[in-house]
Fold this sequence. Notes:
Blueprint: H1 2-26, H2 30-41, H3 44-57, H4 69-93, E1 112-115, H5 129-134, E2 139-141, H6 155-169, E3 174-178, H7 181-189, E4 199-203, H8 219-223, H9 229-239, H10 242-247, E5 253-258, E6 276-280, H11 292-303
Parallel strand pairs: 1-2, 1-3, 3-4, 4-5, 5-6
Helix pairs in contact: 1-2, 1-4, 3-4, 6-7
Amino acid sequence: MIARVQRLLVLALLMLATGFLVTRWQAGQPMWALLGAVAILGGHSVFLAIEMVWLVAARGNDPTPKASMRTLVAAWAHECLAMPQVFYWRQPWRHRLHADHLPADAAGRRGVLLVHGFVCNRGVWNGWMPRLRAQGVPYLAVTMEPVLGSIDRHVAAIEAAVQRLEQTTGLAPLLVAHSMGGLSVRRWLAEQPPSRVHGVVTLGSPHQGTALAALAFSINGRQVRRDSPWLQTLAAREAQSRERELTGVYAGFTCLYGDCDNVVFPPRTATLPGADNRLVAGAAHVALVDRAEAWQAVQQRLTA
């Protein structure tokens, strides 16, 4: 469903930009025609700039080293390029480009489950899937719906994918999640023995909520508000497990977070107590998926 919606939005933007370009050009205003078309197609950059300003304003007493203005501007520029790549191309048109990889001889090889975030689908991982296949790593990339429904409803999709990886490889998989996907994984894992996962790597996940969710209108958006009842209930579920009390609730987690994350902020909200929390300097939210540090963290977990 999310792919169809994003295709319609892309086509609507292209039609609007083309219509403005043609009408202004015919009116003898070629400069305004070009500027207007670019503004329509690049309008997301304005919203990203507002998020960056909010990120700076909402820091409070966050202990993460403060990013310089130059770093913030560079992160904003990279995010302006990353957003259309993901939301205008990979997810609407190319989310089925790479099939899941569960070869017949996968037994004994560690599998990876890729879990997307809010208003995304498996296409966000298009840069990862061919690299995992080239390494001979079995993987599954899920698309979870409903898009705006409760995070609790993602549990079934994750459970089904984990079962397939377990049956194919005979091993507990490594789970890699971006953004809200990290909360989906935690919600699933809260009702499972820790032995069912080899580890969890989260990229910019709002583990402690995000200030940006104050504007959220969807069910899952409200669930990731700072100190939301849903987050408190999730933490209580995780703490109930005796096995987790002995080993550390988040001992198997690696949490990557950015000092320029325009969606999950203040920065430390993307960390967990007792986890391997790693700062990725200069990383905005969507761009974090394709950062070398994210790939390296997964490689370290696979070989651990």
